Amino acid sequence: MADTGSSRTKSLIQLTAVCPKAADVVRFVLKEISMGQQEQVSNRIFTLANVISFIRLCMVPAYLVFLLEGHDILATFLFALAASTDFVDGQLARRTHTVSRLGQLLDPAVDRILMIAGVVGLLLVGRLPLWVIVVVIARDLFLLVGGACLLRYKKRIAVVFPGKVATTLLFIGFAGLLLNWPMIPGLGLCDFAWLPGFNGEAVSWGIWFVYAGLVTALATTAVYIHRGWLALQEVRAGIAER
Predict the structure, then answer these.
(1) Is residue 75 within 8 Å of 178, Cβ to Cβ?
(2) Residues 34 and 49 in one domain
């Protein structure tokens, strides 16, 4: 480790001589990495980030009530608000150094609950085909069960950036379908009612974000499976060495 640090220092000195601005960027990046590695996880419950996550959770039943009562604009507003603040609680916890074990579980759990509530609500009002709901819920349940199995061995797979992108695309798509305006003509490539957008019927623009989100979500699932497999291999190797 000492040789690595010495080598890094020498490289930084050489970079400073060649390009001082680039060296400043490197120092900043190394500082951020070091701070991330030193972040302490507490057992605190009442943190501002956790309160925000709880408020987002309370928006879910309110969204469903408004949607089923026919108040599309209010339902869209609540869903969009809960979805758009997805990054707030996590960033706030890191910026204020109040990362907690509860928050690490609550933040992704609220995302999953909001996702499932979104698709179920859209199914109930007839704006989303059943197969999309099945794919979304099956994927979330699979990741939930897989994560629970890894926690038994004190292993946790961090959320990857493409996974956040997939969630964002789905949330935007769901909000578009909730608003149900403006409607755009379908491509007319088939006559299947379970493929909105590809058939000839007019559909909300949000369906295309849903399709993009599904493709991205399935791709990131493969990444999570690979990382989970590597984590299990580490566990088995540790057991074998005992």
Answers:
(1) yes
(2) no
pLDDT exceeds 90 at position 95: no
Residue 118 near residue 171 (C-beta atoms within 8 A): yes
Position 5 in a domain = no
Residue 4 lies in a domain: no
Residue 185 is classified by DSSP as -
210: domain CATH number? 1.20.120.1760
Distance of alpha carbon 102 from alpha carbon 219, whole angstroms: 28
Question: Tokens representing 47?
Answer: 């943190």
Alpha-helix residue ranges (DSSP H) falling in the chain: 2-18, 20-38, 48-68, 72-84, 86-95, 101-124, 130-151, 161-179, 206-241
Provide the pLDDT for residue 196. 96
Q: Quickly count: other Cβ atoms within 10 Å of residue 59's Cβ.
A: 19
Judge whether 80 lies within some domain.
yes
User: Can you read off the two tokens belonging to residue 57?
Assistant: 């959770």
Q: For residue 41, give every residue at least 6 positions away whose Cβ sits within 8 Å of its Cβ, in sequence order, or none.
A: 99, 100, 101, 104
Handedness of CA 142, 144, 149, 154 (dihedral sign): positive
Q: For tokens 């005992």, what's the residue?
A: 242
Task: Give the count of domains, the chain.
Answer: 2
**Does the pLDDT of residue 29 top 60, yes or no?**
no
Which domain, by its residues, includes 23? 10-39
Tallying the residues shown for the chain, one arrives at 242
Tokens of 191: 């006559």
